Amino acid sequence: MSNTHYTVVDLFSGVGGFQIGFEKAGFDIIFSTDIDDYCEKVHKLNRPNVPFLKADIRDIDNLTLDNFINKDVDILIGGPPCQGFSTIGKRVSSDPKKRSEKDPRNTLFREYIRILKYLQPKIFLMENVQGILTREKGKIFSEIQKTFKETGYEFNFTILNAADYGVPQIRNRVFFYGNKIGIKLNPPAPKYGSNGLKPYKTVNDAISDIAGLENMINNHVPLKHGTKNLKRYSMIPEGGRLPENELPPELYRKNFGNTFKRLHRDKPSLTMVPGHNAFPIHPWLDRSLTVREAARIQTFDDDYVFVGPRDKQCMQVGNAVPPLLAQIWAEYIKEELNKFYEEK
User: Fold this and answer.
1) Which of 32, 140, 43 is nearest to 76 (CA)?
2) Is the Cβ–Cβ distance between 6 and 28 less than 8 Å?
3) Domain 7-194+321-339 grouped into CATH 3.40.50.150
């Protein structure tokens, strides 16, 4: 079975980071869906041969699935929009009724489980932010755990740091996973870090060769910063934050967020968080990272093009599962599936 092309369905696919990793590991992506117009454009531009449906997942019924999917599904992947669970920014109401009204993203994991129950894939793998585990004092996680177990699938979860797998970025995310065929799945083993592992990949490894090539590579367009911000950036040490207490009055403002942190060239990046239109500051240039630099830190290939206004491109990159981390999951799952079939 080593040459088998296992099939994958990707829900909440964004620009496809999750499925790119599986595709690189030799899986066939037979269906992909997202609600976002620009994500659809990115898919059609970069991955025209992958069946893609732009739709609200709540409107995707069984008949629609049958129209797109005419074979057994081996793996169901996806990352329900996570901002409702994020520890960054303003959270929604703690009242469950108001929560679902104000931010429907808090219930979209139920749609993932609904489709899981219908498609009955052998294995599922779902990604989200860590905050989902503690949101509402753990009530949402308890519901997720209970609802998954009611499907008859084995249910597990783990928190992985993308830097431990060769992604030049500290990015902790929770993965829910399980299967219904009796495989004992474990998270893929870390390859980078301390204790005799390979040294972490760094920002320098990822982006140093394209400094000076601005506007010559797809999506490598610097943001035009105002005079005040340029002065602020010049005061940020490499690997440090803006020294707010040392600012002259004319440079002070109420809130300084992630965009006023400078990366260190010899360390992994901070998490690529999709801000309005800016990422952290370049290690040695007084500007924020370009979309292409952020995409490299997320391990997208340079020929993968992002489209739309800058803020949309930032969201496309920042929300994605790093393709390299997805590929490592995929290679591990493929090994386990191969062993399963060889033993049958």
Assistant:
1) 32
2) yes
3) yes
Which residues, 6 or more positions from 126, have their beta carbon under 8 angstroms from its beta carbon?
77, 78, 79, 80, 109, 112, 175, 176, 177
HEC profile for 105-163? HHHHHHHHHHHHHHHCCCEEEEEEEHHHHCHHHHHHHHHHHHHHHHCCCCCEEEEEEHH
3-state helix, strand, coil in the chain (%, to 5): 40, 15, 45
Q: Helix (H, G, I), strand (E, B), or coil: what is residue 248? A: coil
Mean pLDDT computed over every residue of the chain = 91
CA–CA gap between residue 226 and residue 143 (Å, rounded): 46
Q: Are 306 and 295 in contact (CB under 8 A)?
A: yes
Beta bridge partner(s), residue 269: 169
Judged on CB neighbours under 10 Å (0-12, 13-18, 19+), 164 is: buried
Domains 7-194+321-339 and 203-318 share a fold: no
Q: Binning pLDDT at 50, 70 and 90, where does residue 87 land?
A: very low
Positions marked catalytic: 82
Query: Among 83-92, 120-129, 300-309, which stretch is predicted with the lowest mean pLDDT?
Result: 83-92
Rounded to whole angstroms, how far apart are CA atoms 257 and 210?
Answer: 26
Better-scored residue on pLDDT, 187 or 101: 187
Bridge-based pairing state of the strands 172-179 and 123-129: antiparallel
Residues 6 or more apart whose Cβ sits within 8 Å of residue 149: 155
> How many residues would you count in the chain?
344
Domain chopping of the chain, boundaries:
7-194+321-339, 203-318
Looking at domain 203-318, its CATH class is alpha beta
